Fold:
Amino acid sequence: MCYQNYSDYELVNEFLGGKQSAIEVLIKRHKRKVYTYIVINVKDRELAEDIFQDTFIKVINSLTSGRYKDEGKFLSWVMRIAHNLVIDHFRKAKQLQTVSNDASEIDLFSSSQLLERNIEQEIISEQIVKEVRSLIEFLPEDQKEVVVLRHYVGLSFKEIADHTGVSINTALGRMRYALINLRKLIEEKNLVLTDI
Structure:
């Protein structure tokens, strides 16, 4: 049976009625948005794949246990689950990050100059990343998508072309125009994007 023309609501009902292929259509339909959201936040493709799979495992478990109430917002609900799993990941990672200075012969904290320099560099680098990320939001959607997939998701131009359904030349062209537009925005806003 071809489910491509079914609404999300109809697909959920088909899945609950025992049609496993309906959930596959839902996953394929929303994979790009959900996966891109996850990977932009975790900045690691393998981790994003894991969180994406966990997201849809939770979706399936919630559907089969009757915890989903359709209000015409299936994608929003899935995105909220993905968002919560991303937050859970960062909470766990933060709990695991403990630095021990006992095993090292060199005192990591003995050189205040080294420490201050690293903190200063990190703050400047973070600021540059934030400024560039905010500038990307001003790009046309097709250019923004290529920049995000290339520099934040780490896809090759072939993968970007496959992912967006365009030719490699089109993907390259969009990147070229995105870079031109970013340079213009940097000049217009008089930004200095250099690290020390």
